[in-house]
Amino acid sequence: xxxxxxxxxxxxxxxxxxxxxxxxxxxxxxxxxxxxxxxxxxxxxxxxxxxxxxxxxxxxxxxxxxxxxxxxxxxxxxxxxxxxxxxxxxxxxxxxxxxxxxxxxxxxxxxxxxxxxxxxxxxxxxxxxxxxxxxxxxxxxxxxxxxxxxxxxxxxxxxxxxxxxxxxxxxxxxxxxxxxxxxxxxxxxxxxxxxxxxxxxxxxxxxxxxxxxxxxxxxxxxxxxxxxxxxxxxxxxxxxxxx
Length: 243
Fold this sequence. Notes:
Low-confidence stretches: 1-5
Radius of gyration: 19 Å
Structural class: mainly alpha
Mean pLDDT: 93
Distance between the termini: 54 Å
CATH architecture of the largest domain: Alpha Horseshoe
Strand content: under 5%
Number of domains: 2
Number of strands: 0
Number of helices: 14
CATH topology of the largest domain: Leucine-rich Repeat Variant
Shape: globular
């Protein structure tokens, strides 16, 4: 595929993906999956495991000569997707091994577009934890600045991504950054922001339950009951795990 233009390549790649995804699709699952996800975009009825297997096979020998070519290919698949699984395949393409050298802050506008246009938790949470998180580890200063800016965005999904990007960090969590990303959403009535705040704190409670309790008590008057409930779920288990 390296000899073809990025535009032609994404169309050929999408055609192959569609063939392979349809081969493993269960149409009886499609309507239920669409209803569960409250999605306007139809589903093929492909399980997450089958989707990953298809993507690994289709992307295994993919030629990505440059970061620009990679981003164009991802955005081409994303833009022309007709089924939700095809958009998930575009997100899978952002994480292929051939793209490791391209995981720099220059990729942030691409991830931002996927988050804003995807505008739902299944897309956003995958990108936040599995793409933004590693980017933050590798490039903490510029990515951290971007996450602080996203946390103040009018777009709730950018805010959610900023809050959740350190979910897997454990002891490496930058608490100052986490709290800075939570702060602009403390008073939000949005369910997905309240849930994200609780989830991020709950994850950190595995590492430092006392700190999560301290934070919750210090901000209880501003935290929603949902955020408090979620944040404290792991406190006792986290404390027990540290004994």
